[in-house]
Amino acid sequence: MLIYSNATNRQVSEFAADVCAGLTKSGQRELPSKYLYDGLGSVLFEAICALPEYGLTRADARLLQKHAAEIVGRLPGTVQVAELGSGSGKKTRWILEALSQRQKTYYYPIEISPSALAACEKELGQIDLISVVGYEETYLEGLRSVARNRNEGESLLVLFLGSTIGNFDRDAAERFLWEVRDTLLQGDALLLGTDLMKDVDTQILAYADPTGVTSAFNLNLLGRINRELGANFDLSRFRHEVLWNADHRRIEMHLRSLSQQYVEIPAAGFAIALNEDETIWTESSHKYYPQEVVRMAEKAGFHCDGQWIDREWPFAQNLLFVQ
Ligand code: AVJ
Fold it and tell me: What is the per-residue pLDDT across 20-39, written as a single tens digit (0 to 9) for each?
């Protein structure tokens, strides 16, 4: 697979700067959830997707498998596919196979994790009539590169699956959709996967699995800071915690400090003193009502052409066209 990469030392210093900003913040400390996905984190996330308690990925995949033909049938002309955060690429197969029935298709996974890009190539590189060209860039940078290189008369289908949008606060999600919209042209489409509201116990259990995989996924963020920034977090002195924030309708993951402790992060040039019981907030996963997604898309300059909902695990695929 061809990979366009911008990866440099810049990424190490960006990581260090983000870790420093989040951990030295006054009030609630936090770490950006995008850093959960290093090599080990990506493997742990794949394991999460296999947990009986985490129905999200299976619902996402079921909808794509069931409705791929109808979804691609609504796209006019020759279509190229870009995916934001391709992950392993397993779910994308259904869309690419449906498209390859009618045309040769270019597929551009955009992904800052090189290991995820490689997994994606392995999964999807062998399909006839599909060419994979990976972009090791941030979502918007990658999308701008793809949009810049497109041929005249071709339209773009952007995939943003798995409810990754849920990691953004609601305002930021709308702004992000707006920025995606801004890279696109009339006739282009965005297929957006969104996890829907369901009963609170089911939602909490999906992130507080009794097997402990999500706990390992969360703690690995501290392990990554140890490995990449030379820090000395003692992972046994933190506990994975999950809460439902009803005001914001989101799951929050935190790491709770089990004692008063002092941690040094040399490559980022700072140290912190954590109190017993203090938490570091590592991720939000917002949950949506179906109509809320339609409204958010409209405010961001899209119109919703179709919404497919899984009954077993409430989750929606939303096909959005540029207004
Ligand atoms: C991949 C961001 C959608 O928020 O549900 C899974 C990540 N975190 N378990 C989610 C995740 C903990 C997941 N997303």
Answer: 999 999 999 999 999 999 98
